[in-house]
Design goal:
The protein is an alpha/beta fold. It has 19 helices and eight strands. It has a six-stranded parallel sheet, sandwiched between helices. A two-stranded parallel sheet has the order 4-5. The longest helix has 28 residues. It is globular.
Length: 516
């Protein structure tokens, strides 16, 4: 049976479907599965763990479409082979264009350009997501009148056919995973006995729709949450929720075609999102056709038509300053939220400073840019690469490994002169520090001893770190990292904040690596 959970609050629908799964996990022996977008799978795993505890959480399989494909391939086969990455795609597309260049007319002049390679790869990705094969393009061309469009489609079909043929010789394209998954699931009753819930999607690709169609036919129940207040679309495709409603209509049509019953949708009425009636009125009328008048008194919402971004920032800063002075607010009471914050950098902060408003402006940065994280990642890379020199110097140049700049420079010069890497880092070095010199002086002997002392200071903690990583779990990995940071005397405040934010990262990385 297909069951919808509808609501305008994303968190409300998610909490409802989690509650449904919790009740089933605690009261029945049904197999349960929650399918969510890839980027939110870890968050949902943690949420289900908090709800059910370590024992009952094993009853609910939290997955995404890509992880679902991996699970099916491991059970029934189909995962063997080298997987193609973005670099490989570019190479194969370049080869495909070279092969068919003589047969091209429209694209011949651009056949060797990187722009065309990127364009063809984008087209290939789009067609794969829509499950459109190059042969189907060629078949469509046959019914078209002679035109530029027909020529372009014919050449596109030729290029993509050559590309797919080259890839198929030795690689598996991950973009084809869901198409191959459909074939596997058609031959096996994978979802038999399952209650499946799909949460936090606005729409689906053709590949995903095909998997959902199989879920409808094989599972006992399918719950789908949608961010809308109804499945009918009175705005005829132009409303705020029209895309989501179209998704609901597609699912209903698939269910009817598969003779699957459709339950009356559960519409969540309680909206805890707003405590202000005026703000709730703005939300209910925004981006909708027609005009309505709010019946509540407005003391919370102000609309200001700014001339430009500078005027907008000045209004915000002046309003904050005025409310603090006149209404006894505190600066910490305010939050400035923008859809595209990068557009206001250098504008909003300048306006706030001009009016002496203290602020903190959040700016996302790659975690790899932080020296402590780079140190830890480099330590793992050292172990994985067998003590490669590149990984070791990446580790040292974070400035947190315990060696100063002069010591690192001496090590780097010696390694460059004698081409040292790998297991040689674990052995005592005996070669002349000046290279192919005739005789080692007392000064050279002293310099070599200092270089070896630096080498030992680097490798000893790393060797202990490598030993602790053997046959351990996520918690053991986190403990090994903590011990390494303590041993090399990394700044202790950084260690504590790093471990507080990263322990779960190491645990889930261990889980993912065990799956791979």
């Amino acid at each position: 049976m297909l069951r919808f959970i509808l609501g305008r609050s994303g968190s409300g629908k998610t909490e409802t479907v989690r509650s449904v799964l919790k009740g089933m996990a605690q009261s029945s022996q049904k197999k349960l599965m929650l399918i969510v977008p890839e980027q939110s799978s870890f968050e949902n795993e943690r949420a289900m763990l908090r709800l059910l505890g370590a024992k009952d959480v094993q009853r609910v399989q939290v997955t995404s479409f890509s992880r679902l494909a991996d699970a099916a391939f491991r059970r029934y086969g189909g995962a063997a082979g080298r997987r193609l990455d973005d670099g490989g795609r570019s190479i194969f597309m370049s080869l495909a264009l070279e092969q068919v260049k003589e047969h091209l007319s429209f694209y011949r002049k651009s056949a060797e350009s990187t722009e065309l390679i990127g364009l063809m790869l984008s087209a290939s990705t789009e067609f794969k997501m829509c499950d459109v094969k190059p042969q189907e393009l060629e078949h469509a061309v046959q019914s078209m009148v002679q035109s530029t469009l027909r020529q372009k489609m014919s050449e596109l079909s030729l290029i993509l056919s050559a590309y797919d043929a080259l890839v198929a010789q030795s690689y598996i394209d991950p973009l084809d995973d869901l198409t191959r998954l459909k074939t596997v699931l058609q031959d096996h009753d994978f979802f038999a006995g399952y209650t499946v819930a799909i949460d936090s999607f606005q729409s689906f690709t053709v590949q995903e729709y095909q998997i959902i169609n199989l879920i409808l036919g094989q599972s006992d129940d399918l719950y789908v949450t949608l961010c809308t207040d109804q499945l009918d679309d009175p705005e005829c495709g132009m409303g705020l929720f029209s895309l989501v409603r179209r998704t609901g209509k597609n699912l209903m049509r698939m269910a009817k075609q598969s003779n699957v019953k459709i339950a009356a949708p559960e519409i969540l009425q309680s909206e805890r999102r707003f405590t202000s009636p005026a703000l709730a009125a703005v939300e209910s009328g925004a981006y909708r056709f027609g005009r309505s008048t709010a019946s509540c008194e407005n003391k919370d919402v102000v609309i200001y038509e700014a001339k430009n971004g500078y005027d907008e920032a000045a209004f915000v800063a002046s309003t904050i300053r005025n409310l603090v002075i006149e209404e006894q607010y505190r600066y910490s009471d305010f939050a400035v939220i923008a859809r595209s914050p990068d557009q206001y950098r250098g504008i909003l902060d300048t306006a706030l400073e001009r009016r002496q408003v203290p602020y903190f402006m959040d700016k996302p940065q790659s975690v790899d840019a932080e020296p402590l994280m780079r140190l830890v990642l480099s330590a793992f890379q050292i172990i994985q690469s067998g003590f490669s020199s590149d990984a070791i110097f990446s580790y040292l140049k974070t400035g947190l490994a315990g060696l100063n700049t002069e010591e690192i420079s001496r090590l780097e010069n010696y390694v460059f002169i004698w081409n040292i890497s790998g297991k040689k880092w674990k052995e005592e070095w005996t070669e002349h520090p000046q290279g192919f010199a005739e005789k080692m002086t007392e000064h050279d002997t002293q310099k070599l001893a200092e270089i070896n002392a630096s080498r030992a200071a680097v490798t000893t903690p790393l060797i202990r770190f490598a030993n602790k990583l053997k046959e351990t779990d996520g918690e053991g990995m986190a403990a090994a990292v903590y011990s390494l940071l303590q041993e090399i005397k990394a700044p202790f405040s950084s260690v504590n904040s790093f471990m507080a934010s990263s322990r779960s990262h190491f645990c889930i990385s261990r889980v993912e690596s065990s799956r791979s």
